[in-house]
Amino acid sequence: MHQQIEKWLIELTVSEKCALLSGSGFWHSQGIERLGIPKIMLTDGPHGLRKQGDKEDHLGQNESVPATCFPSEAGLAASWSRDLAYLQGRSIGVECRAEDVAVILGPGLNIKRSPLCGRNFEYMSEDPYLSSHLGAAYIEGAQSVGVGTSPKHFACNNQETKRLTIDAKVDKRTLHEIYLSSFETAVKEANPFTVMCAYNQVNGEYGAENQYLLNDILRRQWQWDGVVVTDWGATNDRVKGLLASMDLEMPSSNGVNDAKVEAALQSDPELCEALDNSVRRLLKLVLRTTQNLPEVEGFDAARHHQLARKIALESMVLLKNDEAILPLDAGRESVALFGAFAEQPRYQGGGSSHTNPTYVSRLVDVMAERCPDLRYEVGFGIYDDELNADNLAQAVALAKVKDKVVICAGLPERYETEGIDRTHLNLPAAQLKFIEEMAKVNPNIAVVLNNGAPVEMPFVGQVKGILEAYLPGQAGAEAIADILLGDVSPSGKLAETFPLRLEHNPSYEYFPGEGYQVSYNEGVFVGYRFYQTKQLPILFPFGHGLTYSRFAYSNIQVSDTKITDQQSLTVTLDITNTGSVAAKEVVQLYISDSQSEVSRPDIELKGFDKVSLGAGETQSVSFTLDKRSFAFYDAALDDWRVQSGEFVVKVGASSQDIRLQACVEVNSTVALPFVVHSNSTFGELRSHPATKEYATELLEYFIEHSGIDFNLGDNDENFAETVISFFPIKNMVLFCKEAFSEAQLAVALDKLTLMVANYNNLEK
Ligand code: BGC
C-alpha cells in the first residue's frame, strides 16, 4: 500500500493533488482516471444507510435506497451493549458493501450537554466513557467488513442553534474530560478510517481548521493518521484547514478552494508538505476501502430486520413498573391500546440520518396478531395540539371496561430534528391531557414513549408503567410487543438523565449561547455529574432501567488496597439473578474521589458490563481500572493526573442504585514542579519536604515579629494554623516591618529555591 501511495504521489500533478482533497459532487471523493485512482462514496449514517441517487441533500429530504433502519443511537446507547453496537456497525457495513459505499458517516459521538439539542437522538450519551466505548464497538463492527466510519462531529457540536458558526468556549479540563473523551477511546482503540470535523468553532477556531483539535489532539496526542473529513459544507478557510491537517473537503467546492490552495502553495513549503500528507492519507483511505476487502455475506433484508429487532429489544428502558403492571398477561387480562404512534410509528429522527427502511412494523398490527382480543382506538393524533372530543369519549368508554390500558405517546418529528433545538421538554399538550383523562377512569395504565431524548413527565404519578422505547428503528413495534407481552425482559438502562424540569439542567442558563458564542460554564458537571453532585431530585437517573427479574450484587473484591497510578486494579463481584425469569443486567462501575484538590463530580462512570443470567444463575463480573479511571485532566500540567489519596469504587444497577463499594488508595508517580515565589504561602512551603523545616522557622519568626495575634477569640488551634497557612511569604516584609527587609525576603526565596532544586536532584 505504502509503495502504491508514494508512486501515485510522484505521478500526481499539483492540481490533481488539490482536486483529490475536495469531493466530486455530493457524496463522492474525486477520482483520477488517468492513474486509476477510483472515487469512493461516503454517505450517512449513523443508524442505517442513506444512499441517495441523483437527488442529493444533506438534510434527509430526498429518497434514498431501501436500507435497514436500526435503532437511533440514543437507543443503541441505552442497550449498554458493546456486542450490539458492534453488530449494528457490522450490519450497516454489510449494507454499505452491497451498495458500494466506502465510508458510513457515523457514529455520532457528541455529548448530550443539554436535552434540548435537536440531534440528541443521533448521539450516544451524556457520559464520555459510555459514548466512546460504544462508539469504538460500532466502528470495529463496520470496519470489520472493510467499510470506513466517520465518528462525528469533532468536536463540541452540542447544539443545532447556529451550528455552522457558533463558537463553543470550553476550558481545557472540560474539553478533555468530557467532550474529547467521548471520541478518544473510539479513535485510539478502533482506529476509524475517517473522523468528521464539526461545523462550529471551538475556542475561536472552526472545526475544519482547528489546530488544537486536529493537529495537537488527533494527530499528536492520539497518534491517529486517518482522514479528517469536513461536515458537509464546514470549510471556512481551506488553506488554514490544510495546515491544520483537515484532509477532505465535502461536498465539492467546485474547484473554488482547490484554486486557493494551489495559489497559496507557491509561497509556502509548509503547505506543500501538508498537502502531500493529506493526499497520502486520502489515497490510503481509497486503497483501504477498495482493495483486498474481506468477504462478506450479501445483504439479506429479512435477516437485518430481525437484527434491528434484536437491538431494539435491548435499547428500550423500562422506567417504571409499579405493581408489575407489565408484562401484560394477554390470555387473562383485557387490554386497550391507544395513541396514533401505534399506527404511525415514530421510529427514526429527522435530518441527514433519515433512512428509507425496507419495512416498518406497526404496533397495532403486531399486537392484533399476537393478542386477538386487544382493542385499539386512536385516542389522539401524533400532531394534535388539542384532543378531539369524539375520540376522547370513545377512548374513555373503552378504557372503563378494560383491565389495562397501554398508551403510545411520544414526540412528533418536528419537535426534534437536525437543524433546530427544542425549547422545552414537553410532550404535546393533547397527549398529556389524554393520559390525564385515562387515569381518571382506569388505574392500570402503561405508557410507551417514542422520542429521541428526555421529556418531562407530569403524568409520572398517574400511571403505573412507563416504557421508554426511544426511536427504535423499523422493527421497533415487534420489540415493544416482545416487552409488553413479557417474551423478553427489558434490559436497557438510561444513557442520560431524565431531569424533573428542564431548568435543572446544568447548561440551562448558558444554552444555546449569546450572539456567536456559547460558554460551557457548567464545566465538567454535565448530566449526572451535576445532578448527583448537587443532590438534585431527578425524574429518572443515569443508568436506570428495570427488568422483569431481580439481581443481587455480592462479594466485591479489589486486587489491592494500595496502588500507584502506574498499576492497574482488578475489581470483581458476583451477580445473581434472584428472580424467576431469564434477564440481562447492566453492571455499572463508578469512581468517587474521596478528597480532591480540584472540584470533581461525586461519581464518574469507569466501567460497565452487560450480563445475561438465567433465573437463579450467578456470574462473576470483573473490571480492570487504570490511571485514567482515577485521573482528572490537569490543565496546568496539560495531562491526566491522579491526585494521591483514597478513591471509592462503587458498583451498582444505576448511578443512584449503588449496591457494593470498596476503597483503594492510589498514589501518583508524577512529581509536580514546585516553584517557590513571593506568593508561595506558609502552608504550601510547609507541605513540601524540601522546604518544610526552613518555612516553619520563618513562620515562627513571622509570628513573633508581626505582632499579629492569630489566636482569635475562642477559636481552636486549627483555626490559627489554617489562617496562618494562607499568608504568602512576601507578607513578612509588610508585617514584620524593620525585622524583615526586602533584601532578607530575596535571600529567603533564593534559599528555598535552592532547597527544592537540591531535593529534586537527590530524588532523581
Ligand atoms: C450533518 C452530518 C451529515 C452530513 C451529510 C450534515 O448536515 O451534520 O452529520 O453526515 O450533513 O449528510
Percent of residues in β-strands: 15-25%
CATH superfamily of the largest domain: Glycoside hydrolase, family 3, N-terminal domain
Query: Please, what is the oligomeric state?
Result: single chain
Extract low-pLDDT stretches: none
What molecules are bound to this protein? beta-D-glucopyranose
**How big is the Rg?**
30 Å
- Compute the number of helices: 22
Query: How many individual domains?
Result: 4
CATH class type of the largest domain: Alpha Beta
What does the model show?
The strands form 9 sheets. A 6-stranded mixed beta sheet has the order 10-16-15-14-11-13, with helices on one face. The chain folds into 4 domains: 15-290, Glycoside hydrolase, family 3, N-terminal domain (TIM Barrel, Alpha-Beta Barrel), CATH 3.20.20.300; 314-540, Rossmann fold (3-Layer(aba) Sandwich); 551-667, Immunoglobulin-like (Sandwich); 682-763, no CATH class. α14 (429-441) links the parallel β14 (404-410) and β15 (445-450). The protein has 22 helices and 29 strands. It is an alpha/beta fold. Bound molecules: beta-D-glucopyranose (BGC). Beta-D-glucopyranose (BGC) binds at residues 44-45, 58, 105, 152, 231-232, 352. Beta-D-glucopyranose (BGC) binds next to loops.
